[in-house]
């Protein structure tokens, strides 16, 4: 996508062909800063600190992290230690472990001197594949938006999204935003309600930023406004992303997604989830009981960072001194509340049979 008119991805190889460039998303929307990852430790910390975030981008970063590790130690022990280090950074998004599995498969049986080149080749391919997948998600999701526009006689299509499942969460294009960008670029009249997405405010700081840069009309709303908007007929469909989808179609996404799905179900608003196939975890069936939910530091809830009127960047406390806070990063939306899954192979039902039929090479008969 574009930043100030210039195309960019979220992650890339630098001109030296070995170190990795990425965007420090912790500083958006007020500062656009790129950083260079030079070591395994750099890549692991980038994921852990949410300098990079979003399931597909975490996977791509982990893949490049393996490359950086092999520059220092291409032995079996070095490879295993690198994957173990990266696997511990974030527990919920399945793309991280998928990417590490891909990297292991690409280099494990090669002689030590051939591993580094093979690792970079597979990491580059993972990044390119993510872009192609997201473009396909955009094409399949476009049909949903076009159908609503047709029913409204060409009237504006109103979309609600939660958190950031845009190009900043992937290598490029995005998942939930892919149909939005595709429809906008085709000239359809649409508007996006952007949930602020407390406590890290990824909607306010990231989704609103990237939609604005691309020229997509959008309005930032408080997290709890979605149900009200749906009650009053102001939302035509909800599109969100996901960090993990189970074999039976349960969806794990940013905290608050479940509440949006309940409101959509109660008001007859279609609720779609956009996802690349590496986000499907065929080893897990019951999302509520089986998916580990990341609990993050309470300072994300009690503190808030922002830009002051005179241009300074400050972090302030918004809760009483000494009060404790709980900070669950994700929740699970049961498949029964999901209208459909927008994948690179089409819009499919959130069921075990539909997922296995669409991705037989990954389901293993699940």
What this model shows, in words?
The protein is α/β, with parallel strands linked by helices. The protein has two domains: 2-129, Four Helix Bundle (Hemerythrin (Met), subunit A); 141-363, Translation initiation factor eif-2b, domain 2 (Rossmann fold, 3-Layer(aba) Sandwich). It has helices at 40-48, 55-72, 76-87, 94-107, 112-151, 177-186, 202-214, 226-231, 257-266, 287-290, 299-302, 352-358, 360-363, and strands at 2-3, 6-7, 11-13, 20-23, 34-37, 157-161, 190-195, 218-221, 237-240, 244-246, 251-254, 271-274, 280-281, 303-307, 313-317, 330-333, 340-343, 346-348. It has a seven-stranded mixed sheet, with helices on both faces. The chain has a four-stranded mixed sheet with strand order 13-10-11-16, covered by helices on one side. A three-stranded antiparallel sheet has the order 3-4-5, covered by helices on one side. Helix 2 (55-72) packs parallel to helix 4 and helix 5 crosses helix 6. The radius of gyration is 20 Å and the shape is globular.
């Amino acid at each position: 996508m574009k930043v100030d008119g210039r195309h960019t991805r979220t992650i890339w190889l630098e001109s030296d062909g070995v170190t990795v460039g990425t965007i420090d998303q912790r500083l958006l929307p007020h500062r656009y800063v790129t950083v260079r990852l030079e070591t395994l430790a750099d890549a692991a910390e980038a994921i852990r600190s949410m300098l990079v975030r979003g399931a597909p981008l975490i996977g791509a970063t982990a893949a490049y992290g393996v490359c950086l590790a092999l520059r220092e130690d291409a032995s079996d022990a070095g490879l295993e230690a690198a994957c173990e280090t990266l696997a511990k950074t974030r527990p919920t998004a399945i793309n991280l472990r998928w990417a590490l599995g891909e990297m292991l498969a690409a280099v494990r049986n090669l002689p030590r001197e051939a591993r580094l080149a093979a690792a970079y080749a597979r990491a580059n391919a993972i990044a390119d594949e993510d872009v192609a997948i997201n473009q396909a998600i955009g094409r399949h999701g476009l049909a949903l938006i076009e159908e609503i526009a047709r029913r409204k006689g060409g009237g504006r299509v109103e979309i609600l999204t939660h958190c950031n499942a845009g190009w900043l969460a992937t290598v490029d294009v995005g998942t939930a935003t892919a149909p939005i960008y595709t429809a906008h670029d085709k000239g359809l009249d649409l508007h996006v309600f952007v949930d602020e997405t407390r406590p890290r405010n990824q909607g306010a700081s990231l989704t609103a930023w990237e939609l604005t840069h691309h020229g997509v009309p959008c309005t930032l709303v408080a997290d709890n406004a979605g149900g009200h908007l749906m009650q009053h007929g102001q939302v035509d469909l909800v599109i969100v992303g996901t960090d993990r989808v189970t074999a039976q179609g349960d969806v794990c996404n940013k905290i608050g997604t479940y509440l949006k799905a309940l409101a959509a179900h109660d008001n007859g608003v279609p609720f779609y989830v956009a996802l690349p196939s590496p986000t499907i975890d065929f080893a897990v069936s019951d999302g509520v009981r089986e998916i580990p939910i990341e609990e993050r530091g309470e300072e994300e809830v009690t503190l808030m960072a922002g830009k002051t009127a005179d241009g300074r960047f400050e972090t302030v406390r918004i809760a009483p001194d000494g009060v404790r806070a709980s900070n669950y990063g994700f929740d699970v939306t049961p498949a029964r509340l999901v209208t459909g899954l927008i994948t690179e192979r089409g819009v499919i039902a959130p069921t075990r049979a539909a997922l296995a039929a669409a991705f037989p090479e990954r389901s293993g008969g699940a």
